[in-house]
Amino acid sequence: MPLIELDGVRKSYNLGRPNEAEVLHGVSFKIGTGEFAALIGPSGSGKSTLLNIIGLLEPMTAGSYTIQGEPVAGLDDSGLTLRRRAALGFVFQFHHLLPAFTALENVTLPALMRDGSVSAAQREHARAVLAAMGLGEAMGKRPGELSGGMQQRVAIARALVMQPPLVLADEPTGNLDRASSDEVFALMRRMHAELNTSFLIVTHDPRLAERCDRIIELVDGRVESDERPVKTPA
Questions:
Q1: What b/e string do you get for 171-198 counting C-beta neighbours within 10 Å, with b at 16 or more?
Q2: What would the DSSP string read from start to end of 94-108?
Q3: How many whole angstroms from its chain centre is CA 183?
Q4: Per-residue pLDDT reduced to its tens digit, 111-165
Q5: Looking at the chain, which terminus has fewer C-beta neighbours within 10 angstroms, N or C?
Q6: Is residue 31 predicted with pLDDT exceeding 60?
Q7: Rounded to whole angstroms, how far apart are CA atoms 137 and 143?
């Protein structure tokens, strides 16, 4: 069973108005468990809109979308929130860390939001995830005391701490220099290998896309290609 499956997904804005515009025109693809895929395409192709639909942050206009075999159509706001928390982690171009919270407190936020409090076991797990990110000495530091690459590593730890089946990353290295970008990407690949977590990464960087196992290209709101790059031996 696919982890997620989109079938004929369409998205229109300003429905029923003279300026109605359809930005996604029947998008279909599946993501399986343990995949590491890139979503690429020119500006305005619908990548962010599609990622928002996959992330249950905005509704589709038509088509079907299932997560772990469960259709999302018909879920109310509470149901969507529960599904999002159970199945998805998010990493964005801008890390969106809370500036008054330490790195550890930022990483425990998903547990706090889900359960209303953070248990000792959850805090210890968050410490272990941060340590795996190479941030063992930075747990008590606030975002303003960390470099951009370190802040993004905290954001990845926050996305992974609840062990979601799928992490959605929207230009996760777009705000970093090349060295930090390569470091963060390598970290995501390592976490993917160790945890078998699926990743769907929106990127404009062809270097990073080519290092993914699969490249889905979106052009003018349609899937133009869906390929698995041939890896050359190192």
A1: bbbebbeeebbbbbbebbeebbeebebb
A2: S----TTS-HHHHHT
A3: 17
A4: 888 888 888 999 999 998 888 888 888 889 999 999 888 888 898 888 888 888 9
A5: C
A6: yes
A7: 13
Residue 23's nearest CA partner among 219, 231, 212, 226 is: 219
Q: What is the pTM of this model?
A: 0.86
What are the distances in angstroms from CA 22 to CA 101, 157, 169? 40, 35, 24
- Classify residue 219 by burial, with Cβ atoms within 10 Å: 0-12, 13-18, 19+: middle
Domains and CATH numbers, the chain: 4-227 (3.40.50.300)
Which DSSP category does 19 fall into?
Answer: T
Instruction: Give the pair of three-digit tokens for residue 177.
Output: 């220099």
Quick one: three-class SS letters along 157-183? HHHHCCCCCEEEEECCCCCCCHHHHHH
